[in-house]
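notes to self, project folder thing:

trying the whole complex as one job this time. last attempt i did each chain seperately and stitching them together was a nightmare. two parts in total, labels are on each line so i dont mix them up again. if this works i'll redo the older ones the same way
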Amino acid sequence: MSKQPRFTAQTAKVVDALIAESGLSGVELGRRTGLLSGTLYPLLLRLEEAGWLASVWEGGDPKVLGRPRRRYYSITPTGLAAVRAAANSQVSLFTRLASA
Amino acid sequence: MSWVGDVTASAVGALLVALLLGEAKGWAPRITDRMLSRAIKRLPAVYQERFAEEWSAAIADLPTPVSKAIYAVNLRWAAERIRWRVRPRKPGLQIWGKGPGGVVLVLAGGAWSLVARRGLNGLGWLALGVLVAPGTYLLASRTASERAKVETLDKSIAQLRAEIRTLRKQ
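result (full assembly):
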């Protein structure tokens, strides 16, 4: 597991989409988050290597499917906890700013 | 007669757009294939097999040739970013121990910015001296230390060669 990723707006979008529906492919995540593939895949890889996301190959033989297999992403319990912690710290920051 | 000009311009514009779209549709599959294969090649070896299949599946899921081509061009960018992230870190300029070589750059940058702002009047010269002198000293001392290491290594090599010669004679 590598170092903890930064909780950016893009990270938040990806995590939000995966909390709403687990097991999404890269294309589907791109549609839901509005992120381009050039941004999305490096981010997915970074989150996966940090243990925030897990990915699995689509079941079935590509010959039977008639196309290459998709890879489906989902958020892990570690990722969920990390995201909650990051979101809470952001909330407290914004609360402080709002009351300043 | 102005309406004739408008209609002609519209017709020519529509024709051009149609031609360009047709051309783009014709070229898109080739662009997609080329960009995808280049993206895969640019990836670190450990990721190539995985992303070759995953990205091929992603492109297959897209509806039009042009959208596939745009996606593939972006994948090329994704590959560069992944490659950059996992690149082997070369040991850069080191000023002391494990410290970053950036210290000298920061000092030089600070001096430069002060001189640029103030010009080379009294304060500018003072800033130049205060910021650059320690950096120069650190660089010089580090260079001396590295040179000493190289000399020690040279001595060891010479000693080993002498031992090898002795062994051959025996």
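what i see at first glance: Chain B touches chain A through 21 residues (CB under 8 Å).
need to look closer tmrw
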